[in-house]
Amino acid sequence: MTLYNLAAVMRSKNAGPFVVTVDIFFEDLADYRRVLDAPDFCKSSIAEMYGVAPAAVSIRPFERVLAIKVTFPRPGASSGAPGDRDVYGCQHHFPLGDIEV
Amino acid sequence: MDRSLTYLSLCGMLGYGYPLASLQKGLEAAPDFIGVDAGSTDPGPYYLGSGEAFVKRSQVARDLGPALEAAIERDIPLIIGTAGGAGARRHVGVFMEILREVAADRSLRFDAAIIYADVEPDVVEAALEANQIRPCGPVPPLQPGAADDCTNLVAQMSTSPLIKALQTGAEVIVAGRSCDTAIFAAVPIMRGYDPALAFHAAKIAECGTLCARPGGANDALLCTLAEDHFTVRPPNPEKACYPDTVAAHTLYEQPDPDRFVEPEGIIDISECEFGAVEDRGVTVRGTRLHEADSPCLKIEGAALRGYRTISVAGSRDPHVIAHLDEIEQTVRASVEENTDIPQSDYSLQFITYGKDAIWQDHEPSTQTPHEVGIVIEAIAPTQQQSDAICSLARSTALHQHFEDRKTTAGNFAFPFSPSDFSGGAVYEFAIYHLMDIANERDMFPVRVEEVGS
Lengths: 101, 453
Fold this sequence. Notes:
The complex is a heterodimer of chains A (101) and B (453). Chain A is 21% helix and 25% strand. Chain A has 101 residues and is α+β, with helices and mostly antiparallel strands. Chain B has 14 helices and 21 strands. At the A-B interface, strand 2, strand 3 and strand 4 of A face strand 18 and strand 20 of B.
């Protein structure tokens, strides 16, 4: 099962022009835990996927609403600068969504 | 009985629309003021850089009119933050034109306090020399001269300039670049309410009904602050706030669900309780504020990086699709040979939808699509030059030879005639830094204008 298929909501958005944040919401506690326990759901594999430094990736579980927040710097140009391909940052949830959980 | 203060957030963005019935319903709660955010960095650096308004004039006028009339009739302040989309002097000017037109149409007379948020490049340069500037997040360190490159340079004001403007007695506050929360926290803080609750409530309110279900930025939200809690609820009877939707709001557009940062300090919501109350509302208590050690402001500046021209094309041919990278490279080489514009002056690229347009080298999928869409993009120092580069690249790509080519009459389908589009100026956020300041009030001059007189 991929993270995208397990998630109820998987959305990404700018957190300012230089940072993107991905929110992943789950239907129940079991799904939420399953992702947090998945070996591939970690800073190093996410960093490799996006081509950023592992220390720059943040994973913040938010159990109150069964959500996990993944935040990382934009790997390329800042929002709307030459070379950017996603001004609002709304399609940065892939390739993260392909992670096997 | 404990005192309380009620305000109405008109919608998540002035010009995104709201049901007029929501405004009417919201007014029944006798709000102490109406506030609305009118800007964002989300649409990219173009608007700050160019001075153009982000939301269309007619839409701003449509949203502004009924709220302005209601505020003047009831003698309550109307507070607009980040006027004109990016909040530089030119944006504020555009907004004031709309405000005067709307006031004239409705025969309204009032004082407007205008707060400018522009920063002189010299101020930034001096701060840089004094080591009082640092990147805001993963942003490159500021280099000397960067401030001079910016066409517009603004600071995000916090609550104190808004309070200064409110104290002039003006009915309408038109603020340049503002923290979204300042719009809604200024009146509560001026009246002595708990700043932690004021900021948390403001953070939720500034997005309109994004914290409700069904969500969306295009509707109004009512907020009532008391001494030890606040309550949010949508006036629209078809929408409701739930403890989870309100709690989840701190996830939106910011990196940490437990806290967010304002110039006044860190607002900590980790101990908050969210409870459902009557009339589709949610009450929040337990927000804490860890006050900032020294005042600093976020500075935003956008610099011109050239002019863009694009051409849109597609291909259904398997061999063209298989050789796209090669075609792009040979087109680029051919353009370089056939133009007098030095290659170092421009950039030329294919944005290949269906293949790897969004993720380029990081795209893990290797699936071969049956059809691709291509945007040929040229960026050059002048519009004329980018038009020329794009045009040459487009004509070259159409007839570019490659191995196994069967499409010798043309490689691409162009959907439009003319096929190329001049895209105008391209900007970049060159400054997105925090600057230490001595006194915020001095940085944001306030001017009062009689409107409709």
